[in-house]
Amino acid sequence: xxxxxxxxxxxxxxxxxxxxxxxxxxxxxxxxxxxxxxxxxxxxxxxxxxxxxxxxxxxxxxxxxxxxxxxxxxxxxxxxxxxxxxxxxxxxxxxxxxxxxxxxxxxxxxxxxxxxxxxxxxxxxxxxxxxxxxxxxxxxxxxxxxxxxxxxxxxx
Length: 156
Prior knowledge:
Elements: H1 3-26, H2 29-51, H3 55-90, H4 97-116, H5 126-150
């Protein structure tokens, strides 16, 4: 892929992910519940078919909401970390690329949580910033591995 196309592609993906995170954070608490609740309902239906209904399943279903919501944080910030790392790499940033990417993800996560303070039914959670940072760091590291593989520095 040409250098200019690579730069534009990764920068566009990074901006798209940032906008997506902002849109999700701008949802009211009720709207956010509807989105994650829909995913949860599908999983609950599948688990009920497999295991049946009972008190233990209700506890598991309660944990599902937590897992769905928190894994969403990690996944979207994984994608942000990967794309931001690749964006910087496409501009030939060489020094402390991993550190810069992780710090960027932590900064964006913190501003995202701050933004949620002003949205009805939402709150800022330090735990979410930590989960976002873990996802961003994993994405940055995956971006580093991807870059090394595509550069031929790691052989299959």
